[in-house]
Here is the input.
Amino acid sequence: PRFPLLSVLMDSSSIIDNFQAKMLLGDSQYQRINVELTETIHLDECAQIKHMEDLVSRYIQSSEWNDKKTWIQNNFLQ
Here is the structure.
């Protein structure tokens, strides 16, 4: 669509939630963990499940995930 209203609403809600949680909790108590999508995957695209699993598998092998995992271990599992 020329102006993807639903995407704008969903994205802005996510951005606001992220901002508010970060402001309330601070960096020492809040981290956002996000697998970046390289393309749009619609909620009803069951055929994309394997692709999404591959994206998650690559993410959990990344240095970003290792940093987040270390943060979780240091802040919540001690």
The chain has three helices and no strands. The helical segments are 5-25, 49-59, 63-76. The two ends are 49 Å apart (CA to CA). The mean pLDDT is 86.
